[in-house]
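Researcher: Here's a chain I'd like modeled. Treat it as a single chain, no partners, no ligands.
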Amino acid sequence: MTPLLRVRDLHVGFGRDPKANEVVKGVSFELMAGQTLAIVGESGSGKSVTALSINRLVDFGGGQITAGSIHFQRSDGSVLDVTQADEKTLRQVRGSGIGMIFQEPMTSLNPVHTVGAQIEEAFRLNRGLTGAAGRQAALDVLDRVRIPDAKSRLAYYPHQLSGGMRQRVMIAMALASSPRLLIADEPTTALDVTVQAQIMALLAELRAETGMSMIFITHDIGLVAGIADNIMVMQQGVAVEQNQIDAVLDNAQHDYTRHLLKAVPHFSAGKAVRTDGHRVEGRAPIVSVDDLVVRFPVSRGLFRAKAAVHAVDGVSFDLQPGETLAIVGESGSGKSTTARAILGLNSHQRGAITTAAGRSRRPIQMVFQDPFASLNPRLNVEALLAEPAIANGQRKDAALHERMQFLLERVGLPADALERYPHQFSGGQRQRLCIARALMLNPDVVVLDEAVSALDVSVQARVLDLLVDLQREFNLAYLFISHDMAVVERIAHRIAVMFAGQIVEIGEARGVLADPQHSYTKRLIAAVPAVERRNQHFAVDMTQVPSLVRQAGYEPPAARWRQAGIDHQVRVEVAS
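Model: Modeled as a single isolated chain. Structure tokens:
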């Protein structure tokens, strides 16, 4: 059989002399119709450049194919050498022939058009659907990727959606083209595990229905263990190992592949939770949140809002010194809104947020998900680290410089890093800089909002170890927001599960992970991808996430709780 895609000896370079600056060095592989190939490797390994070369999108990023061939079989049976095709031919292939889902949806969506208009455009260009038919098709595809309130979301602009929802819109737009080959470049990185499992199930279902082939680029081998037929491992622009997925997972031959497999956090349903830092009964909390309510108006009448998004409804918890509380839940569940309210970045309508009084230190600092967006590219590291201290009234003197050097050493960066700029560091190093900056004011509490989700698995493992070491050394309390349950298992002492703006289960990490009680927590844990679960197949679940939009004046019923064990409470579910 003729392969759908055949890549031979592909070389790709950048800059004025691309042959001297190659980032892909002689990659070859084949993909048959209906098959899925996983390309895995760390940042800078060349996996995304390889994918972008398949439909020549690499040309628009300063890249150039310097050698090799890419043969793609079109729907009429003809074979096109993509490396030799002109732009007119490539425009006919992109979308309907080769579809693409990018990692960062905000840079891929047009900020001045609604998501509905952008999805309808994809249906119009690729299937000729216009008017009511186009709108219905857009609504149907949003439902399929499990967007809550899909009908109203069609009128939203990209900035009004969470990162996870924006990624689902991107997936919906790619599916609108019904491509023969779908290239997915880290498409679920920003998604929580339940939606991630549903997207993977949806992609598997579409592959079975349409015979669509896929190339899935990821740093999470566990994610593709159950969907890929073959795997290609890349390191520094070279394919170091290729084989069927089971053969690589069970008997990896290359040292780098074994290194990647070892670095992947393995979820063990509570068996790998931390044994240090247990809660002390009666100890005063460093942060206490009581009945927190955050709402955002969605429409206004002449005098008042007619409805509101109940983003956070009646959330309560406390955090002790030296303890890590992980908040987990779906995108849009209220995790980050809760954290931002604690930091004073969001106003709250009701509830109390109490921090330890009588301390000279600033109690709370924050580390965000995207380290590059968090660092001013015009400032060097010395200025970046000094900025929070100067804003807090400190002088830029020898003592401050000494603290900078001390913290750089503690996060594993050299002292000469002070003179360098953010773009001169890798993603993992930039996140270490953000951690060092958060510690400049000697805080009691650090909020980590998806702080390791964008990192490669080996870098992620090192940053997690660093966070644990710093916590022990400085007695830090962490509020750790994440959608990755395997990561949460490694760092959390306690876990709070959020769903639709409310905490539905909270308690000691081992109890919550090993014996989940709430139906949502059970779904969350069941959806965790892992190498050990490679034979687990998910069915597409079209259950709607409850709407958080409520009419003005609505108040939810008072929560009822039951005890599920020592330090383990579960919200009593109300039958619908």
